[in-house]
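User:
Hi there, any thoughts?
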Amino acid sequence: MTSGLAFLARRVSGYFATDGELDPQPLIARLHQIGAELAYPVMSEERRMVFRPLREGQALQLNRVGIWEPSAGRTRSVLAWSISVMLVPLVAFDGTGARLGRGGGYYDAYLSGLGARRPLLVGYAHACQEARAVPRAPWDVPLDAVVTESKLHVFSVRAQRFG
């Protein structure tokens, strides 16, 4: 997966794992070594998710729900269409690419309206988080793939090219 992502990933969004989520930092560090720019989610004052670049040595802060994020400083938000690959945390996923998050709908709201310009969405999860079926609402954006510690699950034609 790293070689395919390396080809695709000019800018990768990561996240800081909490509550037992599979930690994507080793993968993100490798992608950064091969030239990817990094962006991380930040909760805005309007309770919307935005992404900010994260540079080496940049300060982090805990947000209102206890998740690390890049401190504001003088950095501008990253435009959604400029993210090539978005690593997405999840609570559960199924064989269709449906994803169950923590219930805030932040990723779905962020991605709504992007259509074909949306990033390649890659869930990052423990294998035990795979469910038989995950409920999907009309506004839920499906994943293109999920990476677990034991397997790459591919759900879209877009992801097949980079597996």
